[in-house]
Design a protein that fits this description.
Blueprint lengths: L4 H11 L6 E6 L3 E7 L2 E3 L2 E2 H4 L1 H7 L5 E6 L5 E9 L4 E8 H57 L1
Antiparallel strand pairs: 1-2, 1-7, 2-3, 2-4, 5-6, 6-7
């Protein structure tokens, strides 16, 4: 089977994977037939040494994904799927930080909102506690005044 790098280039550019993203076509023997990334096109290297968890998952012969630190030290979320009828798999990977940055932003917003609501609840409880204490003092003062008034009659 012949791979034209121009076809993979076009496909890669449509994916918009970013600086750390990549797509590879890897054989059942663990040899990468072609790899396209922002740094260019590469081929004929052994995936088994650089991506052991991915290689193990690929060996199961079905689609899936792993999170693994790649050769550049970047943690990647990697998805893969076998090519039906060929001893090949297509692998797509992306920098975990890039994938999760939107989620992290929403999470920070939710945490800030939760903190504000919690603070507001504490302030309301504190104000209610002070109001109850003042009311108890007023009732106690009125009861004392009533007792003194009753005793003087």
């Amino acid at each position: 089977m012949l791979f034209r790098s121009s076809n993979l280039d076009a496909f890669y550019s449509q994916l918009k994977l970013g600086a750390q993203g990549f797509i590879l076509i890897v054989g059942a023997d663990g040899i990468v037939r072609v790899r396209q990334s922002a740094s260019g096109t590469h081929a004929n290297y052994d995936l088994r040494k650089e991506w052991p968890a991915l290689w193990e998952a690929l060996g199961k012969g079905r689609e899936g994904g792993v999170i693994e630190r790649g050769p550049g030290g970047v943690r990647n979320i990697v998805s893969f799927r076998p090519v039906t009828g060929y001893p090949l798999s297509v692998v797509v990977g992306e920098d975990e930080a890039k994938v999760t940055e939107g989620v992290a932003s929403v999470r920070r917003t939710y945490l800030a909102a939760a903190a504000m609501i919690s603070l507001a609840a504490v302030l309301v409880i504190g104000m209610l506690t002070l109001a109850i204490q003042r009311e108890r003092r007023r009732v106690a003062e009125r009861m004392l005044a009533n007792q003194q008034l009753s005793a003087s009659e």
